[in-house]
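Listing S7. Sequence submitted for prediction.
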Amino acid sequence: VYRRMQSERNRVANELRAQGGAESEKIRADADRQREVIIAEAYRDAQKIKGEGDAKASTLYADAFGRDAQFAQFYRSLEAYRSTFRSKSDVMVLDPGSDFFRAFRGSGGGNAPAAAAVRK
């Protein structure tokens, strides 16, 4: 009688474990699905915000560059140098008569765009 009761309890326990395992898998699958949805929505929102920021930046640049074409060209040159020389170990050899040097010391006695911008 005792063995029969014990085997019945073991059967019920195994059945409950199986049901718990199935429920556990269902909960995990649902959580994984929710995680993917949340990540996708966050990425979508981030891209939208980034696009809005890029559009605003483009508008601001266009406005600023429209006011001073010389500054716009100077700024683009600096950005080109910055993107080209990212590493601290990069080296650039230039002719002292190059536009890069003229921008900082002025050409023909005039002010460099950077110096003129600082004085304004």
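Caption to Listing S7: primary sequence and predicted structure tokens for the chain studied. The longest helix spans residues 2-67. The chain has two domains: 1-67, 69-120.
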